[in-house]
Specification:
With about 350 residues, the chain is of the alpha/beta class. The protein contains 15 helices and 13 strands. Helix 5 packs across helix 6 and helix 9 crosses helix 10. The N and C termini lie far apart (about 85 Å). Bound molecules: adenosine-5'-diphosphate and magnesium ion. Adenosine-5'-diphosphate binds next to helix 9 and helix 10.
């Protein structure tokens, strides 16, 4: 660099802020170091020093995967990063995981390998393209007695089955907000399938949620069970999603607040589903739509927040002779349709 240019550069630097100067000085230095392309741990990410890494880990961001699915706002809060650094960190974590654009044939291949948990009914499974799918949220909504909770029990058992029998070889975390979980029913179902009853019961971790905040907290704790206790969680049940939210935010003026919390809750569930390739099953109540003139005048509660976050929505109702009817609503990849199944005696099965 000739003297004149050097002076001009330094003058230019002096006019700028301190951080910019630091960046100017640091950048060429970085280039001299052998380029480290491979990001293998959090510490390898740009802008993450040991202190920040520690803070992020304390807040639960201890894998590249957890960072790659985080939002900048969350990292700002958790690790004291600036928003710009948070974005850089997330992008680097994403590219280290090979996230980004993929061709559709690769996606198709991946989707073929997605875990699907059987319901024990061939008709129900085929309605869902193979069973309850991991990686996203599946919602069943319907009136009281329509079998939402029975399906939750059945999945809690079936997720434990070997893969070749339609299971996930994993365990279930069951968030019970209505006090409707019954170990006796699990026992019946396990016996019918010829499973070890004690082991089946042991593999279902149940927590009663006492209000909406508690429910949110329990969902957040699932990650600890996976990471700290090493549990192979393949199913998270929330039965029901909305009852506490409905009770805790009953005033008209509280609706926006409720939806915001609900959104956060569903994001937690969504993240669990994608980050750990597990099935999330939520149940939901219905309300009647007085403005419906044709068709069924019932709809799920929770509005757009629930609708947008549940990738698979199933409407359940009672059918003839004690049967139940499951109707698939607006699936992004499956044809609409409805099937009939049984739930009594032994659990879910074909009619
Ligand atoms: P929802 O959660 O949609 O309100 P449930 O899943 O609790 O409805 O379904 C209740 C129905 O499940 C009962 O009406 C009954 O038909 C059936 N059921 C519940 N427990 C048993 C059982 N132990 N044996 C047989 N059928 C049962
Ligand atoms: Mg129920």
């Amino acid at each position: 660099m000739n003297e004149g240019l050097k002076k001009a550069t330094i003058d230019g630097l002096n006019k700028r802020g301190k951080t910019e100067i630091l960046e100017q000085i640091q950048e060429p230095m970085e280039e001299k170091q052998p380029k480290k392309n491979k990001v293998e741990s959090i510490e390898d990410l740009p802008g993450v020093g040991p202190a920040t890494a520690e803070k992020l880990k304390e807040s639960g961001y201890d894998t590249l995967l957890s960072l790659s699915v985080a939002s900048p706002g969350e990292l700002v809060e958790a690790g004291g990063l600036t928003e710009a650094t948070a974005r850089k960190v997330i992008n680097a974590a994403r590219s280290s995981m090979g996230m980004g654009f993929e061709s559709a044939d690769e996606l198709l291949e991946k989707r073929k390998n997605l875990l699907k948990v059987t319901t024990n009914s061939k008709a129900f499974d085929s309605l869902l393209g193979g069973g309850f799918e991991a990686g996203s949220i599946t919602e069943c909504f319907g009136e009281f007695g329509s079998s939402k909770t029975q399906i939750a029990h059945q999945l809690a058992v079936n997720v434990q089955l070997p893969k070749e029998k339609g299971g996930g070889e994993g365990i279930c975390v069951y968030i019970d907000s209505e006090g409707a979980f019954r170990p006796e029913r699990i026992k019946q179902m396990a016996e019918f399938l010829g499973l070890d009853v004690t082991q089946t019961l042991k593999n279902i971790k149940v927590a009663r949620a006492f209000n909406s905040d508690h429910q949110m907290l329990l969902a957040e704790k699932v990650e600890d069970l996976i990471k700290e206790q090493g549990l192979n969680v393949k199913l998270v049940v929330v039965d029901s999603l909305m009852s506490h939210f409905r009770a805790d935010f009953s005033g008209r003026g509280q609706l926006a607040d409720r939806q915001q919390k609900l959104n956060k809750h569903m994001h937690t569930l969504q993240k669990l589903a994608t980050a750990y390739n597990l099935v999330v099953y939520v149940t939901n109540q219905v309300m009647s739509k007085p403005d419906t003139f044709f068709g069924d005048p019932t709809a799920a509660i929770g509005g757009h927040i629930v609708g947008h976050n549940s990738q698979t929505r199933i409407y359940l109702r009672k059918g003839k002779k004690g049967t139940r009817v499951a109707k698939l609503i607006d699936s992004p990849h499956l044809a609409d349709g409805e099937i009939v199944f049984n739930i009594e005696e032994t659990g879910v099965k074909d009619v």
